[in-house]
Amino acid sequence: MKIICVGRNYREHARELNNPVPEQPVIFFKPDTALLRNNKDFYYPDFSQDIHYECELVLRIAREGKHIQPQYVPTYLDGVGLGIDFTARDIQQACKQKGLPWTLAKGFNDAAPVSDFLPPEQFPDLQDVHFRCLINGQTRQVGHTANMIFDVHYLIAYITRYITLKKGDLVFTGTPKGVGAVAAGDHIEGFLGEKKMLDFHVK
Ligand code: MG
């Protein structure tokens, strides 16, 4: 499986990192080895001093699709979950300054904690989903998918013009404002609506 991520999909998050609001989705990959499941601990890596959390709605793909038309996107989804797009911001910043790819800043081991998945039927309108991220019990990010620059249907249609999605692939849909650094000892919790989906520690 592969993990496809969308960058800068919420205006206020693009602004908080001084990035332009994109005219088309910003797409990048994480390898399957970035996946961290079952709320296992995240071990702070030795190559960065500035790991940031980015809490995001994550979609799981139900079957192979290419050139998916926006109106058929729901038939290609079999799970809705929550994930953290961990980012080595110091490495990403150095890459951005040189115009180089973000691969190591985004794709390192365990850089993609992902919750269990809920049936898409529980989300009749994917552009009306609330989610939030707490660090040490304090709310740091409050997301509402209505604020996406590119909605879920557009994103999946856009991605599959270029890249075939297959069963089990995951799509991170971008983070709202409020990203920040984590440190060893932090407790990360993520809620989809009122349901707790993520609950793990940084070691
Ligand atoms: Mg992100």
Fraction of helical residues: 10-25%
What's the CATH architecture name?
Answer: Alpha-Beta Complex
Distance between the termini: 27 Å
How would a textbook summarize the main sheet? 5 strands, mixed
Please report the total strand number as a whole number: 14
Quote the average pLDDT: 97
Strand-and-helix sequence, N→C? EHEEEEEEHHEEEHEEEE
Report the structural category: alpha+beta
Task: Tell me what the structure shows.
- The protein is α+β, with helices and mostly antiparallel strands and 203 residues long.
- It has one domain (3-201): Alpha-Beta Complex (Fumarylacetoacetate hydrolase, domain 2).
- The protein contains 4 helices and 14 strands.
- It has helices at 11-16, 89-98, 103-107, 152-162; strands at residues 3-7, 26-30, 35-36, 51-53, 55-61, 77-84, 87-88, 112-113, 130-135, 138-144, 170-172, 180-181, 187-192, 195-201.
- The protein is globular, with a radius of gyration of 16 Å.
- The model has no long low-confidence stretch (mean pLDDT 97).
- The site of magnesium ion has 7 residues, from strand 1.
